[in-house]
Write a structure and sequence with these properties.
single chain; 381 residues; 61% helix
Length: 381
């Protein structure tokens, strides 16, 4: 089955061949018919230059060679202009498909043919001009056609490079996004689990009720972490398997984390020993992408508080004013009885900065003058 685009090209080539066959019959281009030149000769010369164009898509270079020879043969009979136009039509596809390194050889060959034809000067005049004039016309037409085809080839190559670079950037950005999501899910959940497990191990013998409470928190956090991980992995496998339409529709309708999920996040942090004061002022719900980034930033910031300062207190402030969503998480520093359980790798701050940069926002993080640590992020919305 021939592709539609190829079929259209073949039809266009057939129409071009018909046009170049009839072109010498137009009165302005018709050669002066002498005794040695009959109408049958004109038709034969026209057909020899035009018919090969019907298979131009299959064999561009051989077709150009045949049409160029036909143009040279038609030159003494005054058919040079129309025959060279047919050769130029064949040359365009050659220039469009050939490698750039071979262009000099082909252009040099055409120029050599033109130079040879210029030596075939005579006193005869035709409606198409003298032989030298026709030869010059042919060289100019072929040279301009090669330049146009080469420019079109370079333009196509440039567009393909831009598309490839954009696709590669999209892949990198998607990998970074998934890496951030996995990092947020894993570090938040594992951090809480490690903290509660340490508490349970510390009070297992003296306060078994508190140990059981810690185990309940660990169970809930681990289940939520598995759900979040499965949702993230499902995105990775989306292109590798066919899903049922109802399952895909249900997945697409599943809400992404947003500002409305912050209370549940706060309760999880409180279960790990962090007293959280949540203050939110958002007259209008920000776009889903901004809301999800804000949720992930608060999640990572609270995870850092749990890992590096619990038990302690912190405040979470969410304010949307004048098209900017401001997220601020500030803690009071490590409290009494703080026991580091999960080492930090610094990727959390990097992920928060990347989320802010993705939306054209700002990110600052550092110690507070009166103790503790503050993270401030602005997201245009």
């Amino acid at each position: 089955m021939v592709p539609i685009r190829d079929r259209r090209s073949i039809v266009f080539d057939v129409m071009a061949a018909l046009g170049f066959t009839l072109l010498p019959q137009l009165s302005p281009l018709r050669p002066a018919l002498g005794g040695e030149l009959s109408g049958t000769t004109v038709w034969l010369l026209s057909l020899s230059a035009a018919l090969p164009l019907t298979v131009r898509q299959l064999w561009p270079l051989p077709v150009f060679g045949v049409t160029l020879v036909a143009a040279c043969a038609a030159l003494p009979f005054g058919l040079g202009p129309t025959s060279f136009l047919a050769a130029a039509y064949a040359l365009y596809l050659v220039a469009l498909r050939r490698q750039p390194g071979r262009s000099a050889v082909l252009v040099g060959g055409v120029c050599a043919v033109g130079a040879a034809l210029l030596t075939m000067t005579g006193s005869q005049h035709y409606e198409g001009g003298t032989r030298s004039v026709q030869a010059v016309f042919g060289v100019l037409v072929l040279g301009a056609t090669w330049a146009a085809g080469s420019a079109a080839r370079e333009r196509r190559a440039g567009v393909e490079r831009v598309i490839d670079q954009a696709a590669e950037r999209a892949k990198v950005e998607e990998r970074l996004r998934i890496a951030r999501d996995i990092h947020d899910v894993v570090t938040h959940s594992v951090g809480l689990i490690a903290v509660r497990a340490g508490i349970a191990n510390h009070v297992a013998e003296t306060r078994p009720e508190e140990a059981r409470e810690a185990l309940v928190v660990i169970e809930g956090v681990s289940r939520q972490a598995l759900r979040d991980m499965r949702a993230t992995l499902r995105v990775l496998r989306r292109e590798d398997r066919r899903e049922d339409q109802e399952e895909a529709a249900a997945r697409d309708l599943r809400p992404v984390p947003g500002l409305l999920d912050l209370p549940a996040l706060v309760r999880t942090a409180e279960a790990a020993g962090v007293g959280v004061e949540l203050r939110s002022y958002c007259p209008q719900e920000p776009p889903d992408g901004v809301a999800t980034s804000a949720f992930r930033i608060v999640q990572e910031a609270l995870t850092n508080v749990v890992k590096h300062a619990a038990p302690t207190r912190c405040s979470v402030r969410i304010v949307a004013e004048e098209g900017v969503l401001t997220v601020e998480v500030a803690d009071e520093g490590p409290g009494t009885g703080h026991r580091p359980t999960v080492p930090g790798g610094g990727l959390g701050l990097v992920g928060m900065r990347e989320r802010a940069d993705a939306h054209g926002g700002t990110f600052t993080a550092g110690p507070r003058p009166d103790g503790g640590f503050r993270v401030t992020v602005t997201l245009p919305c």
